[in-house]
């Protein structure tokens, strides 16, 4: 796992209660995440953790 960071802008409001963010493609490939897959999202302090479900 790399400790390098990439900065991304939140893309915008989706519906009434969600925001959309774009993951760098390399992150999705490393996790095996593809279109239509489910992910598990949790918050730990000031971090958002995304895991393949």
- Biggest sheet strand order reads 1-2
- Number of helices in the DSSP assignment: 1
The Rg value, from CA coordinates, equals 12 Å
User: What is the subunit organization of this protein?
Assistant: single chain
Residue share in helix: 10-25%
N-to-C order of helices and strands? EEHEE
The number of strands is 4
Describe it.
- There is one protein chain.
- The chain is mainly beta.
- The strands form 2 sheets. Strands 1-2 form a two-stranded antiparallel ribbon. A two-stranded antiparallel sheet has the order 3-4.
Name its key features:
two-stranded antiparallel ribbon, 4 strands, 53 residues, mainly beta, single chain, 13% helix, globular
Task: Tell me the layout of helices and strands.
Elements: E1 12-14, E2 18-20, H1 25-31, E3 39-44, E4 47-52
Antiparallel strand pairs: 1-2, 3-4
Concise summary:
With 53 residues, this protein is mainly beta.
